[in-house]
Description:
By secondary structure, this protein is an alpha/beta fold. It is 29% helix and 26% strand. The chain has helices at residues 60-65, 77-85, 101-110, 122-137, 158-166, and strands at 2-5, 11-18, 24-31, 45-47, 70-74, 91-93, 113-118, 143-147, 169-170. The longest helix is centred in the last third of the chain and has 16 residues, at 122-137. The radius of gyration is 16 Å and the shape is globular.
Amino acid sequence: MYPCKDPNNYSRLAIPIFDILGNLVGVNCRRLDGVVKYPSYAKKYLMLQGFNTSYHLYLLHKILKNNLNSVIVVEGEISCLRMHTRGYNNTVAMSGASLSKNQATLLAQTVNEVTLLIEAGQAAEQGLIRSLQNLKKVGFFKVKVARLLDDDPDTVDVKVLEKALKEAYSA
């Protein structure tokens, strides 16, 4: 990850995205100022032109390299990195609120079990429904759901995170 500035002089973090073989395929630049509502010219995320996140899962190549058979799926790359710093090295990010059919296919081809770690909020709930539908469409049924009621993986207390994962239910 690399700090940078965009053309509007906003601080961003350039996050390299790799395919399952470890080849660099894109860069996601996330704004770092914490503003909730962004003007149209200063989006929260900027992708390299032509890069489509729906074909990749952030850090999946690392999980495969380490022969891990189960993954925890979170929304964004920052949440994914935070999970790794907390010892959850089997975490990937979908770079959005829901898994695309392509991402569901990647998971079905590479791992045996998925836990969707869902943040609080309506967008996350809607994303959960789409994610489960896409996983079922590709024949992936070994799925658990863990819920964070008031927070997201970036900021949640470790004990709350552990409890949510322990109480994950089959979907």
